[in-house]
């Protein structure tokens, strides 16, 4: 149980760090609100007089956009950039003399960041959005429960991709470009900007083989009622599948990375 | 019992050299020239519990690389390392609980949060109980005089303040073995003295073994009975500090400060009969004579020099450790 209290402490420290940079926090709320607002009006214009597109009504779409961004606040973190930074200036050395697993600690820091945003950013943000735009909140507690279960896996899959991108710095030494590319790919292919059912069929097929849909599309579809019944369970099954599968490349890369760890400025 | 046992330790780095010119740069895209660099070359080292060992050498001599292998950060290319009865790399998580490390050039505290929050986290990381923390850390905090700094974020501390906090952070779990990599770099004399006093204190009280690298030989003189001298990855001296001083040079140093510019051949000319080596001092008209011989010879030399050249100042010193080390680097060990 000793490890557990250490991880709680890590999350607490991350809360303190987020509070140390309050301005980031405020500007974050503003950026997210602007994004949601912009997409709301964009979708209003696209729908025009149409009742539904691809089986989604306009109010479902608005809810989809709002919830997708609010879920992003939880699963999104910058640990890829942090790992990359720590590798580049040799801070990883310090981490190696600590009795913990570096990647586990990074994941916990990401979780701390996510929980902070969920509590102090998504929840108040959602209330504001709910007052401003017509959004359907489900009144079924099971939908809420499944949604929260689903964003836990969103966090896991996204964090795993971040870990992979971060660890790649060991081999590339400089990977700001890769980190940026990864961010765009996730925003695009995860269904944050556009539900995956809106893509052409061939693209949907390709995305079916990629882990990105597990990040945003699945929880948002669960929340908006786009998925019902057994669809929900198979969707969460996909998330679990990726969460487990991605452990393999992470472990492999980490083993390789440790072997060729060269601390800079030694 | 030996706390550190190192046998035939070696570390090689592969580094690539770039070819010159645009054509070379294109060729580098496809194939690269690799060079193998031996940073640590077959060293063997045994350290007993409670020893304070100074590990010195020029920049790039392999000090930090050795420390990184001893702490399990780097894997050795060859050789055996046993520290605290464990293989640092194999049993990393268990092993690092038994050591404390301070890197002078790298902070281990969290930059944006108060020092006490870092301490609190480290206390959890090392699973230190409240009672242990109370008794041990209270004392450390008091001796290092960091009580008033605890609620400040690390980024607002001066280097000296930060260094004292780093030292306290490395001691949270009261490790029996402490690695200090240039702990006094860039610090003023008062802070240095405070840190030295503190290290002596914990060594006396807990029999903490300390391995310390530094460029400030005053640290070594104040703390270590034993020095290990490293050059190009090899140990060139391992033994008592006073023996190094005794064996290396028996003699005196005379610092002359002349009123007018003097050149080396002129000085050598007038002091031909004496076993003396001249060296330009730190100031323009300053020359340092190192004499190997009796006191008699020293006074004779001084009178000869003063007879020929007007001087403004003269100082007679014993050869300093710094001087000895410098000579060793420049000429290698000859006297043994």
Automatic annotation (TrEMBL), chain B:
The keyword Acyltransferase does not apply. GO terms for molecular function: ATP binding. Keywords: ATP-binding, Nucleotide-binding, Transport. The keyword Plastid does not apply. SMART domains: AAA. Residues 24-257 form the ABC transporter domain. PANTHER family: ABC TRANSPORTER ATP-BINDING PROTEIN (PTHR42711), ABC-TRANSPORT PROTEIN, ATP-BINDING COMPONENT (PTHR42711:SF1). This is ATP-binding cassette domain-containing protein. The lineage of its organism: Bacteria, Bacillati, Bacillota, Bacilli, Bacillales.
């Amino acid at each position: 149980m000793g490890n557990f209290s250490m991880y709680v402490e890590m999350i607490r420290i991350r809360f303190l760090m987020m509070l140390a940079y309050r301005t980031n926090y405020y500007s974050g709320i503003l950026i997210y609100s602007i994004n949601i607002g912009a997409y709301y009006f964009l979708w209003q214009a696209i729908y025009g007089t149409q009742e539904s597109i691809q089986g989604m009504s306009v109010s479902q779409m608005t809810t989809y956009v709002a919830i997708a961004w609010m879920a992003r606040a939880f699963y999104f973190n910058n640990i890829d950039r942090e790992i990359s930074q720590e590798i580049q200036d040799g801070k990883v050395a310090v981490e190696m003399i600590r009795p913990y697993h570096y990647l586990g600690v990074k994941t916990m820091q990401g979780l701390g960041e996510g929980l902070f945003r969920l509590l102090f950013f998504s929840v108040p943000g959602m209330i504001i959005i709910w007052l401003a735009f017509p959004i359907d909140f489900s009144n079924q507690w099971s939908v809420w429960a499944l949604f929260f279960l689903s964003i836990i896996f969103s966090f896991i899959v996204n964090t795993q991709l971040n870990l992979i991108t971060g660890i790649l710095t060991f081999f590339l030494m400089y990977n700001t470009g890769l980190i940026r590319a990864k961010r765009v790919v996730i925003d695009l292919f995860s269904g944050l900007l556009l539900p995956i059912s809106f893509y052409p069929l061939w693209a949907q097929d390709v995305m079916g083989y990629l882990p990105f849909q597990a990040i945003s599309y699945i929880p948002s579809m669960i929340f908006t009622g786009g998925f019902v019944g057994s669809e929900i369970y198979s969707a969460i099954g996909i998330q679990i599948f990726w969460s487990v599968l991605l452990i393999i490349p992470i472990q492999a890369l980490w083993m390789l990375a440790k072997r060729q760890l060269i601390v800079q400025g030694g | 019992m030996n706390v550190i046992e190192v046998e035939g330790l070696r570390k090689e780095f592969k580094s690539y050299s770039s070819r010159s010119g645009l054509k070379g740069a294109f060729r580098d895209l496809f194939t690269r020239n690799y060079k193998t660099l031996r940073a640590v070359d077959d060293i063997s080292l045994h350290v007993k519990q409670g020893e304070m060992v100074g590990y010195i050498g020029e920049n790039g001599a392999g000090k930090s690389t050795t420390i990184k292998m001893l702490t399990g950060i780097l894997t050795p290319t060859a050789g055996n390392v046993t520290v605290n009865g464990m293989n640092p790399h194999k049993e990393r998580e268990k092993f690092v609980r038994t050591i404390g490390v301070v890197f002078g050039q790298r902070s281990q505290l969290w930059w944006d949060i108060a020092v006490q929050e870092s301490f609190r986290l480290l206390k959890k990381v090392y699973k230190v109980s409240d009672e242990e923390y109370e008794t041990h850390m209270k004392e450390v905090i008091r001796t290092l005089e960091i009580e008033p700094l605890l609620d400040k974020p690390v980024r607002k501390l001066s280097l000296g303040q930060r260094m004292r906090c780093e030292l306290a952070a490395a001691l949270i779990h009261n490790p029996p073995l402490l690695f200090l990599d240039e702990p006094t770099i860039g610090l003023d004399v008062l802070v240095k003295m405070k840190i030295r006093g503190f290290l002596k204190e914990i060594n006396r009280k807990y029999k903490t073994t300390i391995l310390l690298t530094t460029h400030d030989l005053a640290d070594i003189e104040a703390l270590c009975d034993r020095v290990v001298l490293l050059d190009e990855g090899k140990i060139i001296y391992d033994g008592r500090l006073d023996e190094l001083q005794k064996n290396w040079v028996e003699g005196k140093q005379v610092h002359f400060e002349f009123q007018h510019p003097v050149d080396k051949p002129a000085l050598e000319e007038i002091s031909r009969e004496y076993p003396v080596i001249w060296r330009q001092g730190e100031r323009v008209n300053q020359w340092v004579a190192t004499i190997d011989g009796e006191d008699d010879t020293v006074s004779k030399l001084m009178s000869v020099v003063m007879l020929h050249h007007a001087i403004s100042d003269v100082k007679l010193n014993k050869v300093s450790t710094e001087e000895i080390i410098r000579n060793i680097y420049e000429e290698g060990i000859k006297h043994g």
